[in-house]
Amino acid sequence: MEFVIVIIVIAVLFIILGIKPIFLILLALLILWLLFAAASVFFFYFFFVLTASKKKSAYFVKIDKHPKSRFKTAYYLIEGKEYPNVFPEEGFMEKLLYKTNVEYHVRLSSKGFVFDRFSFATCYIGFILSITFFIGTFVFIKAII
Q: Tell me: the pLDDT tens digits for 33-60?
C-alpha cells in the first residue's frame, strides 16, 4: 500500500513541477525494466544452482514452515534426512501436487535444499519470462525515446 502512495506522490510532484507526463511513463518503464533485470538475475542464480545440484531420489514427507522463512515449504526425505524445498509450496493445490509414498527425482544442492519438479518449472519458466520481459521493456523504452 505504501508503494502505491509513493507512486502517487511522485506523479503529483511531477505534475506540479511541470514535467511532461511522458517522463513519468518513462520512469515507470525504467523501474519495470530494473525489476525485470533483478528477476532475471534471481532466476539465473537459481538456474545455475539447480544445474550444479546432485540428482537424488526422495520421498515427500510434509509441508511445514521453514525456520529461515515465513512461508511454508515442502520437505523431502533423502537418505534418512529431511531437506526443505528451495521455493515455498503451492498452498491452493497442495493435496494434488504433493503425494506421500511416491518416489520423486529431485536435485539436492550443496546448501542443503531441494529442487523438486515444481522448482524446475519455476526456474525455467521464471528465467525465460523475466529475460523476455526485460528485453521487451528495453525495446519499448527505446521505441518511445
A: 999 999 999 999 998 999 899 999 999 8
Cell 491452493, residue? 92
Classify residue 17 by its DSSP letter: T
* DSSP string for 40-108: HHHHHHHHHHHHHSEEEEEEEEEEEE-TTSSSEEEEEEETTEEEEBSS---GGGHHHH--TT-EEEEEE
**What is the value of pTM for the model shown?**
0.77
Q: Residue 41 phi/psi, 5° resolution?
A: -65, -40
The predicted-structure confidence for 72-109, as pLDDT tens digits, reads as follows 888 999 999 999 988 887 777 777 778 888 889 999 99
Of 68, 20, 50, 87, the C-alpha closest to 76 is 87
The backbone torsions φ and ψ at residue 108, rounded to the nearest 5 degrees and listed phi first, read -105, 120
